[in-house]
Amino acid sequence: MAVKPxxxxxxxxxxxxxxxxxxxxxxxxxxxxxxxxDASFTACMVTDSGGIxxxxxxxxxxxxxxxxxxxxxxxxxxxxxSSNTDxxxxxxxxxxDDGCNFIVGVGGLMAANVTTAAQANTGVGFAIVDGxxxxxxxxxxxxxxxxxxxxDTAQSAFLAGYVAASQTQxxxxxxxxxMQIPPVTIFMDGFAAGIEQHNTDKGTDVKLLGWxxxxxxxxxxxxxxxAAAGKSTSDTFISQGADILFPVAGPAGIGALTAAEEAGDAxxxxxxxxxxxxxxxxxxxLITSAEKGLSNAVRDAVLAAYDxxxxxxxxxxxxxxxxxxxxxxxxxxxxxxxETKAELEALTAAIIDGSLVVESPASPAAS
Amino acid sequence: MSDSTAxxxxxxxxxxxxxxxxxxxxxxxxxxxxxxxxxxxxxVTIYSLxxxxxxxxxxxxxxxxxxxxxxxxxxxxxxxxxxxxxDLVVESYTSLFEGAILNFxxxxxxxxxxxxxxxxxxxxSETLTYATPLIFTGxxxxxxxxxxxxxxxxxxxxxxxxMGALIVGFSLDLPIWLHLPLAIIAGAVAGGALGAVPGVxxxxxxxxxxxxxxxxxxxxxxxxxxxLGTAFLHSETxxxxxxxxxxxxxxxxxxLSSLNPSLRVNLALIIGFAVAALVWWLLxxxxxxxxxxxxxxxxxxxxxxxxxxxxxxxxTMTAAGALAGLGxxxxxxxxxxGGITTNTALDYGFSGITVALLGRANPGGIVASALLFxxxxxxxxxxxxxxxxxxxxxxxxxxVLFIAAPALVKAILHLRTPRGGLVTLEAKGW
Lengths: 367, 430
What we know:
The structure holds two protein chains of two kinds.
Chain A: H1 3-31, E1 41-46, H2 57-71, E2 75-80, H3 88-97, E3 102-106, H4 111-120, E4 125-129, E5 146-151, H5 154-167, E6 172-177, H6 182-202, E7 207-209, E8 211-212, E9 217-218, H7 227-239, E10 244-248, H8 254-263, E11 268-273, H9 276-279, E12 286-292, H10 294-306, E13 314-317, E14 324-326, H11 338-353
Parallel strand pairs in A: 1-2, 1-3, 3-4, 4-5, 5-13, 6-7, 6-10, 10-11, 11-12
Antiparallel strand pairs in A: 8-9, 12-14
Chain B: H1 2-12, H2 28-36, H3 41-63, H4 65-71, H5 78-100, H6 104-111, H7 117-146, H8 154-171, H9 176-205, H10 209-229, H11 268-285, H12 287-297, H13 299-304, H14 309-332, H15 348-358, H16 363-383, H17 391-404, H18 406-413
C-alpha cells in the first residue's frame, strides 16, 4: 500500500518527462516546414466568420484554392479561420509568418486589414475578395501587391429578379439580407431592377418586399449564421403574400428554404452565390440561383499569383466573362416558359453588349 | 530514463525542510509522493490539466483522417498507428505552443539574423492580448463566487462596458490623460449598472441572480445589435454593422509596438494586473471583502452577526459588473478601437466563468488561468488548420469539467482524500 503512491509519483514524473522530451525532440522536424513541403508556392486563405465549411462564401473560396492546387502540384494551400473581426490581423500575420506566398482575404470586411498587411509585407502577394484596397476609414489606397476580386452580381440577380417576376402567382416577391454591406445589397439592387424590367416590358405589377432600391433600405438579419431568424423573417414575408423568396445571407438563407418548404407548393425560393440545387438540400424549392463564380475567380487568382502576374490587378466577374450567371432551372425547367427563356437570353446579350446597364450603388467601381 | 531523473533528483534536494522530526524518517520523496497522490486543490488542478490534454490528444487522433486510417490496419502493423498518433499529437501541441509562447521558426530566423526581436515576442503578445479581457471577466465571476453568487451575466456586463467606453471614447474631445481614464471608467460604470440589476433584484425580491443575469445577457446582446444600427453609434464610413472608431486620445496605448507594430498587447493588461491586485486586497484586507466572504460562507451567520445581506449582494454584483465592464472597455478601447461589431465580445463573459472556476475564485489563480486560456486561444488561432480551432474551447471545457469534479479526478487516478476533504468550489446561490 505504501508503495503505490511512490509508483504513481514515478509514473507522473516520467509522463511529464516524456512529454517534455517529446516536445523538445520534435520541434526541429516541424520547423523544417510543417506540411507537404515539396511545393514551392504556398497560397493561404483567411476566412471571414462562418468557417471553411459554411456551405457558402468561405467554402466556395476554399474550393477555388483546392482547384488551384489540383491544377498545379507545385502549389500548396492552407487556411486560417477567423471567429470575429479581431482575428483578421493575427490570422493575416501568422499566414505571413508561415511563409505564405499569396494570401487571400475572403470578405470585404477585412479589406483594410489586408491592405495594411500588404503594405507591411511587400514581398508577399495578397488578394481581397469582394473588396478593394482601402484604409480603416474605407478610403481607397494604392498598393502594389493586392489583387482585388469583385463580382458584378447585380447582373445575375437582375436575371433572377426577372425570372421571379415571371413566376410569381401572387404578384409579390420578397428578399432579405444578412447584413447591409455592398456584396449583399448589390444582389438586392439587381433583383429589384430585374423585377422592374419585367413590370415595364410585360406590363405586370410585381411588388418586392424587403428592399427599397431607391432609398437603399430593407430587411437585414445582421447575421449570416442565424437560420432561425431567417426563417421567422421569411414567415413574415410569406404571410404578407410573398410566394418567391430571395435570401441573400449565406447559411442563414437556409431559413428561407425551410419556411418555403413548410408553406407548401405555393412558395418557392431563389438561392445566391452557388447553385442551390446542388449545394443545399432544398433543390426542389429552388427556381434558380444567382451564382457568383467565386471558386473559379479564386483559382485563377492563385494560378496568376504563381506565375507572378497577380500584382495589384482587378478581376470583376460579369455575365460577359461568366464570373456571374444564373443557374439552370432544374426542377422548374418546365415551369419557366420558352418565352421567358428567350427574353432572358436577349437580356443577357443586352447586358453583355452594354445596351442594358444594371446599376447599383454597390457595383464594383473598377469595371 | 525517467527513473534516473527521479532518483538523481532526490539527493540533489536538501533534506526535507520539515523540522518536526518525530515521525519515522519523513524523507523528501515520501512527503513529495504523498503530496502528489493526494487530491488537494493544487494537484487536482495539475491533474485536471494533464487529463484534459490527454483527452484532447485522443480527440485529435480520432478527428484526424490520416491517423484514423492507420488504425484500420492496426493489427497488421500497429507501429503505423502508434507513430502517426504520436506525431500528430506532438505536432499539434507543439504548434499550439508555437502560437502561444515561442515560434521555433521565428527563433531560427532570429538566430540567423532574418527576424527582429519583436517578431519573437508576437506569440506571447497574442496570448496576453487574448488573456486581457478574460482577467476582467474572470474576476467579475470570481468576486461574485466569493459572496456565494453565481454571476453568469459577465457577458452582458462586458457588452455594456464596451458600449459605455465606446460612447465616451468617440463623443468627447479631451486630452488623452483625461479622455482615456474617463472612457475606461465609463466602461466600468456601464458594466456595473447592468451588474447591479440582478443584485438589486435578489436583495429586494429574492429573484435568483442566475436567472436574471443570464437573461440580461440576451438583452445586452440584442441591445448592442440595435444600438449599432442607430446613427449615433454606427460608423460613418462603413455600411456594415460596425460602430464608429474611438478617438486616438481614448485608445489604450500598446506596450510593445515600438519593437514591432504587430505586437497588439496594450495597457489594459497592466490595468488587469492592477485590478486583480486590488480585488485581492479588497477580499483579504478590507471590511467589504470580509463581509463578502462572510456572506459567502454562511449568509445566516453573517446576518446574525449584524451584516446586511441584501446590500452585500447588491454591492458585490455591482462591483462584479464593473469588473466585467472594464473588460469591455479593454476591448472597445484596445484591439477593437477601430469599431466594435456584434461579434467583438465573442464569449469572453462566459469564458470568465471557466477562468474563475479554474482560478478557484482567487485573484492570483484567475490571472494565471486567464493567461492559460489566452495562450490556448492564441495557440489555436495560429495552429490552424493543422489543429482544429475548436481544440482550445474543448481543452478549456475539459479542464473545467475536471476542476469542478475533484471526486472524478480522485477516482480516475486513485488519489487519497486530503485531510480537509475534497475542495469543491460551489456557488451557494445555486
